[in-house]
Structure formats: structure tokens, C-alpha cells
Amino acid sequence: MMLKVDHIQVYYGSIHAIKDVSFAVEKGEIVTLIGANGAGKSTILKTVSGLLKPKTGTVEFLGKSLLGVAPHQIVARGLAQCPEGRRIFLQLSVEENLEMGGFTRSKVENEASLAKVFDQFPRLKERRKQQAGTLSGGEQQMLAMGRALMSKPNLLMLDEPSMGLAPLLVEQIFTIIKELNDAGTTILLVEQNAQMALSVANRGYVLETGRIVTTASAVDLLSDDAVRKAYLGG
């Protein structure tokens, strides 16, 4: 078991955001969390990343608890997150942004990671000296993903990678997600575009107002009438 989240309860002040959520991610899988905006998907990722602390419950990665572990130490353990809204450093160059993603690793390791990221994202290599704020939305998403990959994670968490992108770019990003998984990266995917998420995932969990209400294989969720009506446009 790569990631195991067990009965977590998460609050924002008095607001009970995540209610007794449990799920798991096995090595080599793409697992997706789907649900409406505000269902709690991003809150779960922030909790796994150490940015939020659950009131109760446990989070284990590679058999070790992440509770109380600082976010940068979680990255060093092999778990990286590509945040919602990309959050790149607009004033820095593409290459400088990528180097920021490798802050837990040595210079030699980062040189190898940089070469690999440029292989995976040739567009970034072409624009390596360009200021990140001048990139297109799709290129900025590639940069955010590449930055997360610089730490050479065992598990990559992607939060809304298709947000704000044109349909053609969404297709391109999801092709890259599948390629990353095929190359050995385990992925936990949070995505409002449920159709696209389930098209690449092995399994999915459906969230409603902070609770997991359905879990099944991606194929079964795609054919589930209730899921189709709620998240797949019919």
C-alpha cells in the first residue's frame, strides 16, 4: 500500500469539511477523487501534504505515518503535490521554477531530474530561459507538473490540472498524466472534469459534502447512472 488515509476528520474552524474519509492508493495506480466544487477534494490533498492537520484519523505513506511531519519532509519522503491554480513563480524563469521543485535533493540529482523533465515536457525545454508569467495556461500547467516531478516522487498528487484550459489542452494534459503513470509514477488525481479523470484512472472515489459516497473501478463509475447524471452530463 503506497498511501492509506483512514477515517480522517478535518475542520476549518467550526466547519466540518472532511467527514470520516478513508481511501487507499496502490503502487502504480491512478486513483481519482471526483465531486462537485466544494466537496472537499482539495482539502484532502492538503491534509495528505501536511498543510492541514486532521482532528482525528491517520495518513500513512509507504507504511509510515505522515501526521506531524512537516510538508517539506513529506516531499523528501517521495510525495509531491501539484497545486490547484498552478502556483508557479511568475517572475522566475522556467528553469528556475523547476529548480525550486528540487529543493530537497542534491545538485547532481536535480541535474538528472531536470533532464528527465525536459524529456517529458519538450515545450519547457524550448522555453527554459523564458519568464514563467509569459507562458500560456497549458504551458504553466506543464511547468507546475514538471516542478512537482523534480523531487522524483513515488506518488504525485494533481489538484485540478485541467482547470481553465481549452479542451485541446485538457486532452494534452491528460495524455501526459497517462504517460507519467505508464513510466512508473503513481498518481492521486483530483479533478472536476470527471469524464477525463475516469478515462485515465484505475479507480475512483466520489465525494459529496466531505464524505465518500461511492467507490468503484473507473469503468464502473463511468457506467453508473447516478454518477453519470451528477458528474458526467447525463
What is the overall shape? globular
Number of β-strand runs: 10
Q: What is the H/E string?
A: EEEHEEHEHHHHEHEHEEHH
The helix-and-strand class reads: alpha/beta
What percentage of amino acids are in beta strands? 25-35%
Search tags:
alpha/beta; four-stranded antiparallel beta sheet; Rossmann fold; six-stranded mixed beta sheet; single chain; 234 residues; 10 strands; 2 domains
Provide a quick synopsis of the model.
The chain folds into two domains: 26-53 and 64-78 and 153-234, P-loop containing nucleotide triphosphate hydrolases (Rossmann fold); 88-151, no CATH class. It is 38% helix and 26% strand. It is built from ten helices and ten strands.
Description:
With 234 residues, the chain is an alpha/beta fold. It folds into two domains: 26-53 and 64-78 and 153-234, P-loop containing nucleotide triphosphate hydrolases (Rossmann fold), CATH 3.40.50; 88-151, no CATH class. It has ten helices and ten strands. The protein has helices at 41-48, 71-76, 94-101, 107-120, 122-126, 137-149, 167-182, 194-200, 218-223, 225-231, and strands spanning 3-12, 15-25, 30-35, 56-61, 64-65, 79-82, 155-159, 186-190, 203-208, 211-217. Strands 6-7-8-3-9-10 form a six-stranded mixed β-sheet, with helices on both faces. Strand 1 (3-12) and strand 2 form a beta hairpin. Helix 3 runs parallel beside helix 6. The chain is globular, with a radius of gyration of 17 Å. The termini are far apart.
